[in-house]
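Sample entry (189 residues):
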Amino acid sequence: MPRIPAVPTKDAGLLTKLMYRYAVRRYGAVPEPFAVAAHQPSLMRASGVHEMLVEKAVRNLPVSVKELAQYRTAVRLGCSWCVDFGMMLQKHDGLDIERLKNIDDYATSELFTRPERLALAYADAMSNTPVTVTDEQVAELEREFGRAGLLELTYLIGLENQRARVNSALDITDQGFTSGDACRVPLPG
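Predicted structure, serialized as tokens:
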């Protein structure tokens, strides 16, 4: 149970109800961080629009790199909600979620490609307190993904840090997206 309860559909305003309906169609359930944020509808709408714009803007990174970097950040910060949701997104993107069991061994595991390992190490460095990113690391990532890809990766890891820290502060925990309890949306294909 989060520290601030979710806004039930019956208590939501019209626009929030419409946003809930969209979320249910897309994810099978209303994501709890979204329903908690509904206590401040303007902030909830801003967050929802931001998430959709970021999703459309990220076009240079391979899907596996994008998803793994965000997942690793969630794991590092201990956000069970983000881990659950991120695993569901990877599953829907057709990625191998079995290898996520080896995420802590990414640096030496053959389950991860070189570009994925670079992105995962960057997620670790960006999620450390203080941040431990090096000039060499950024230069290598720019060579691998290009400047636009590096900026996308940096933004996504920073955004996942924000999500994970907000969810942790509000005690929003996993919702059952990977167990099938929440996600009733069928897999593509």
